[in-house]
Amino acid sequence: MAWDLDSDRPIYSQIVDIVQMQIISGTYAPGEKLPSVRLLAAEASVNPNTMQKALSELEKSGLIITKRTSGRFVTEEHEMIGQARKKLAANEVTTFFEKMEKLGFEKENILALIQDILREEQ
Amino acid sequence: MAWDLDSDRPIYSQIVDIVQMQIISGTYAPGEKLPSVRLLAAEASVNPNTMQKALSELEKSGLIITKRTSGRFVTEEHEMIGQARKKLAANEVTTFFEKMEKLGFEKENILALIQDILREEQ
Amino acid sequence: MAWDLDSDRPIYSQIVDIVQMQIISGTYAPGEKLPSVRLLAAEASVNPNTMQKALSELEKSGLIITKRTSGRFVTEEHEMIGQARKKLAANEVTTFFEKMEKLGFEKENILALIQDILREEQ
Amino acid sequence: MAWDLDSDRPIYSQIVDIVQMQIISGTYAPGEKLPSVRLLAAEASVNPNTMQKALSELEKSGLIITKRTSGRFVTEEHEMIGQARKKLAANEVTTFFEKMEKLGFEKENILALIQDILREEQ
DNA sequence: GTGGTCTAGACCACT
DNA sequence: GTGGTCTAGACCACC
User: Fold this and answer.
1) Rounded (10°) CA dihedral D101, D107, D108, D112
2) Do D103 and C24 form a contact (C-beta atoms < 8 A)?
3) pLDDT for A34-89, tens place per residue?
């Protein structure tokens, strides 16, 4: 597993993004038990406290459920995962549009442009 | 001028991107003379050789014309600038689609999604 | 190896020509590993940076492939080498014709002249 | 007049080539009087002795005739000029073939190649 | 003053 | 060990 952490952003925040992505993409399925904090921390070469903080964030957002005695599990509510996915997607779309507008493209034209490019790729 | 260089990527490459963006966005107009290598290097707090390497790249790509004794100028061929703009846009579109596909969206659905989001923003 | 560099033209440019010639003539075979930058630089009594600049040019032109940690290799695409050979040949032919025209020969007569001379040489 | 002398070869020898070329190409017509040694030397930014030596060479080869009291003249024998022209042309042809053979072209193929290139140029 | 080239020497990432 | 990047400082040609 490539964790690829850099020192630009807080480590815990980068971990949140990675694990969130793994949940959304199904690497960790709904209801699946996550590895222990210690194991994950070791994998990522990170202090367990840091990993703990990251997982707490994910619990706040509802993607992870902690069962005191048995560990952490991915939520079984597909709805939660779907929401997270939509939120990330919305972020991607808006930052994408910001970049395109810096390049001087009007919102109205971007859709047309995308269709052009997709057509060329085929 | 905020050059905002980090150590993740080669500095000269970041400079290429920044100056390219300035040309495309019109900060430097077609035909306009660029500041001298030494001045730009001082501005960016970078060695003149590094700045030179960046500008040489831009010359190879056709965005900049060097006149030996009088300085460097933005090309007057709007065509070249338009091409660079299109190339950047195409990159943005493809990386955007890659990210969205990681999030589990099919190409066909992305267009629909964008339209939804744009409608909500209004 | 005689590098025979003079100060009329940029050294790196002369090196480009020499190595290019070695590749075309087969001194370095397709797929063969080139000596390291530092070694070549020492051979040519040149700064490693200068040699690097020359080899980078050759990489841009496609004759050389760089594998980051293991070295530089002559391309295995005979097509690329053939193209370079053709380009050099075309240059020779055109400069030859320019000289001959300065001497007052018409294009149509040059072919005939060449045939005469070749016949005499036999 | 661009004399373009470099320090690779003896200056007088370079001057011989240049003046010879001017005679062959008709810049100096058969029978025409050449400027004085002093004037030519000044033009070429060269010591008059050097110019003198160059012109003596040309006299030996028969291209120039010295008339003691009135100056130097281009020969009126078109034959002489024609021979010089042929000799230069022959040199060009042979050095051209040497270069092409270094590039791996057989004599037999060069003619065909030239015809190809000339056809493309049209 | 401009850009272009070159050297010397350093540090980095990768394997 | 490999190539890649960067800095510092020098000299050149051109105008």
Assistant:
1) 70
2) yes
3) 999 999 998 888 889 999 999 999 999 999 999 988 899 999 999 999 999 988 88
CA→C1' distance for B65 and E4 (Å): 14
Q: Are B43 and B1 in contact (CB under 8 A)?
A: yes
Task: Give which of C71, C62, C68 is closest to C24, Cα–Cα.
Answer: C62
Q: Is A45 exposed, middle or buried (0-12, 13-18, 19+ CB in 10 A)?
A: exposed
Nucleotide nearest to C33 (CA to C1'): F2
Q: Are C37 and C50 in contact (CB under 8 A)?
A: no
- Closest Cα of chain C to D97: distance in Å? 9
Q: How far is CA C40 from CA A14, A19, A88, A96, C29, in A?
A: 44, 48, 51, 46, 17
Number of C-beta neighbours around residue B1 at 10 A: 10
**Sorting pLDDT into bands at 50, 70 and 90, what band is A90?**
confident
Residue type for position C119: R
Q: How far is CA A27 from its chain centroid?
A: 12
**pLDDT tens by residue, C33-84:** 999 999 999 999 999 999 999 999 999 999 999 998 899 999 999 999 999 9
Instruction: Assign B1 to helix, strand or coil.
Output: coil
Interchain contact, D104 vs C24, CB within 8 Å: yes
Residue pointed to by tokens 């260089």? B5
What is the distance between the alpha carbons of residues B87 and B78, in angstroms, rounded to a whole number? 14
Token pair of A64, please?
């992870």
10 Å Cβ neighbour count for B96? 20
Residue B44, class by beta-carbon neighbours within 10 Å (0-12 exposed, 13-18 middle, 19+ buried)? buried
